[in-house]
Design brief:
The complex is a heterodimer of chains A (221) and B (261). Chain A is α/β, with parallel strands linked by helices and 221 residues long. Chain A has helices at 21-34, 55-67, 80-88; strands at residues 3-7, 12-16, 43-49, 71-77, 114-118, 126-129, 132-136, 144-147, 151-157, 160-163, 173-178, 182-185, 188-190, 203-208, 211-216. Chain A folds into two domains: 3-88, Transcription Regulator spoIIAA; 114-216, 3 Solenoid (Pectate Lyase C-like). Classes of the chains: A alpha/beta (221), B alpha/beta (261).
C-alpha cells in the first residue's frame, strides 16, 4: 500500500507511505472505490510528515476526493513550505485541541476511535463508521454494519457485516450470536454454511490464510 | 376528549392489514365504543368490502378533502353496529391524491367524533404509508410467521422509530400451530424476539377469514371462530383489559368435526 487510511474522531486520516504521488493517489482511489459510499461526505486529514506537498499535488488529491464527495479539511506537516501551501488553500494545519505542531513533532491524533451505539439495527438500516463499531443490540436481517476497524455486536448478528472496510485484514467481527447473511472482512467474503443453524454461542470471525474463518469464543485458562 | 388514532400497517402486502382493521374496528364497536375506520389505501379500496359496506358508499375521503361533501356525509355507518363508521378510500384516484397534512387533518377531525380512529395503511413504505402513519398515536404492525413479512415489518418499525414515531404493537396473523410444532413456521416468540416489539395479538390461521371477507361479515362476529376470538382479544387489550394470550392449539379432529356449524 502506498498510503494508510484510518478513521479518527476528527476525520479520515491519510498518511502517504510512497514518495510517488501518483502511486499514493492511485492507492487512495482504489481504496475509496472499494469502500463504496462508506466515506461519502467525510472530511480528510492529510498527514504529510516531513514529505513536501506541492500546490499541484494538493490539487490532484482534491480532485480524487471530490469524486467521492469528500473534503480535504486539514494538512499536517513538519515542512514549512507545505504548511504555507496548505494555508493558502484555506486548510487547517493543526487539529483543534492540539498543541502547536512545532512543539510536538508527531501530531497526536486520537487513536481510540470507536462508535458505540445502543439500539436494534433493523432491516434497511445501515451503520457506517471509519473506526471500530460497538453495537449493543441486534443486527436484524436486511440491516448492514460497516466499519473501518473491528465490529463488535453485543447481541445477534443476523444482517450483513463488513469489518476492515478500508482494507484492514486484521479486523475481526464478533457477536454473541453470529448468524449473519454475509460477512465481509477487508476484501474477503464469507457466507454461513447452508443448513441448520448451530446452537448460539459467542463467535469471532477473522481472516486466516486468505479466508474468513469463524471460531467460538473461548476464554482459556 | 379526542379519540385515539391507531394505524394498522405491515410493509408487506397480503398479510392481513385490512382484515385486522375490519375485525378490530368491529370488535371495538361490539364492546360499545365509537370507531371510525379510515381506508387510507387510495386507489385500492378494500375495507368497504371486508365490512360489507361497499354498496352504501356515496362520498369518499378525496371527495371530502376536495370540499365536495361534509365530513359526516363521507362516513358510512355500519348496518350492524351504529357505533362503527367507515371513511372509504377513493377507488378512482391515484395514490398521491391525499397529502400527509390532509390525512392528518382528516384523522384529527375523525378523532373529535369517536373513541377510536383506525387507519388501514396501504402496503409499502412510500407516500401512502407515510400518510397513514403520520397522525398515529399507536401503530399496530401486522406480520405473518414467515421470514419475508417479518423482515418488512422490521423495516416499518425502523422507519417509525427513525421519525420518533408512536409506540408500536405487533400482531402475528395466520399462525398455524401444526407447522410451528414441526418447526416449519417461525414461532411467535422468535418473531417478537427479533422485532423487539410488544405483542398485542396472536391470530391463528382460520379458513373462515376468506369466506367472511367475501361476505362482508368479519369473523369477529362469529363466536366459534378462533381468529374472530383473537381479534376480539386485541380490541379488549386496546381497551386496557388484561387479556391473557390463549395457547395456540392445533384444532383436534374432535373440534374439526363438531366445532363448526
Amino acid at each position: 500500500m502506498a498510503l494508510t487510511i484510518k478513521g479518527t474522531q476528527q476525520g479520515i486520516l491519510l498518511r502517504p507511505l510512497s514518495a510517488s504521488w501518483a502511486d499514493v493517489l492511485q492507492a487512495l482511489d482504489n481504496a475509496l472505490r472499494d469502500a463504496e459510499t462508506f466515506f461519502r461526505g467525510g472530511r480528510v486529514i492529510l498527514d504529510m510528515g516531513t514529505q513536501e506537498l506541492t500546490r499541484e499535488n494538493l490539487g490532484m488529491l482534491r480532485d480524487v476526493l471530490d469524486r467521492y464527495d469528500m473534503e480535504l479539511w486539514a494538512v499536517l506537516s513538519e515542512n514549512e513550505d507545505t504548511v504555507r501551501t496548505a494555508r493558502s488553500f484555506g486548510l487547517r494545519t493543526r487539529l483543534p485541541g492540539e498543541a502547536t505542531p512545532k512543539e510536538q513533532p508527531t501530531p497526536a491524533l486520537p487513536e481510540a476511535n470507536a462508535l458505540v451505539v445502543q439500539r436494534t439495527l433493523r432491516s434497511g438500516q445501515s451503520l457506517k463508521y471509519p473506526g471500530h463499531i460497538v453495537l449493543i443490540g441486534d443486527v436484524n436481517p436486511g440491516a448492514e454494519i460497516i466499519a473501518g476497524g473491528h465490529i463488535i455486536v453485543w447481541g445477534k448478528m443476523r444482517g450483513l457485516a463488513h469489518a476492515g472496510a478500508l482494507g484492514d485484514e486484521q479486523a475481526i467481527i464478533c457477536a454473541l450470536e453470529l448468524a449473519p447473511a454475509q460477512l465481509r472482512i477487508a476484501g474477503h467474503f464469507g457466507r454461513p454454511p447452508e443448513g441448520r443453524r448451530r446452537k448460539s454461542l459467542p463467535e469471532t470471525a477473522k481472516i486466516s490464510d486468505g479466508d474468513i474463518v469463524v471460531e467460538p469464543w473461548f476464554t482459556r485458562e | 376528549m379526542a379519540g385515539k388514532i391507531i394505524t394498522i400497517s405491515s410493509g408487506k402486502g397480503g398479510v392481513g392489514k385490512t382484515t385486522a382493521t375490519a375485525n378490530i374496528g368491529l370488535g371495538l364497536a361490539m364492546l360499545g365504543v365509537r370507531v371510525i375506520c379510515i381506508d387510507a389505501d387510495i386507489g385500492l379500496r378494500n375495507l368497504d368490502v371486508m365490512l360489507g359496506l361497499e354498496n352504501r358508499i356515496v362520498y369518499d375521503i378525496v371527495n371530502y378533502i376536495e370540499g365536495r361533501c361534509r365530513f359526516r356525509q363521507a362516513l358510512v355507518r355500519d348496518k350492524r353496529f351504529p357505533e362503527l363508521f367507515m371513511l372509504p378510500a377513493a377507488q378512482t384516484r391515484a395514490k398521491d391524491a391525499v397529502t400527509v397534512e390532509q390525512m392528518k387533518s382528516v384523522a384529527y377531525e375523525a378523532a373529535q367524533m369517536v373513541d377510536y380512529v383506525l387507519i388501514d395503511s396501504p402496503a409499502g413504505i412510500e407516500h401512502g404509508f407515510r400518510c397513514a402513519s403520520a397522525p398515529a398515536e399507536m401503530v399496530l404492525v401486522v406480520t405473518n410467521p414467515e421470514i419475508a413479512s417479518v423482515r418488512d415489518a422490521d423495516r416499518v418499525v425502523g422507519l417509525l422509530e427513525a421519525e420518533g414515531g408512536p409506540p408500536v404493537r405487533l400482531i402475528v396473523n395466520r399462525i398455524k400451530p401444526e407447522l410451528i410444532r414441526r418447526k416449519e413456521m417461525l414461532a411467535p416468540e422468535d418473531i417478537v424476539d427479533m422485532l423487539a416489539v410488544d405483542l398485542i395479538g396472536l391470530v391463528p390461521e382460520d379458513p373462515e377469514i376468506l369466506a367472511a371477507g367475501n361476505r362482508g361479515q368479519p369473523v369477529v362476529l362469529n363466536n366459534g371462530s378462533p381468529a374472530g376470538q383473537a381479534f376480539m382479544d386485541i380490541a379488549r387489550r386496546l381497551q386496557g383489559e388484561d387479556v391473557p394470550f390463549a395457547p395456540l392449539k392445533a384444532p383436534s379432529i374432535f373440534t374439526r368435526i363438531f366445532g363448526s356449524h
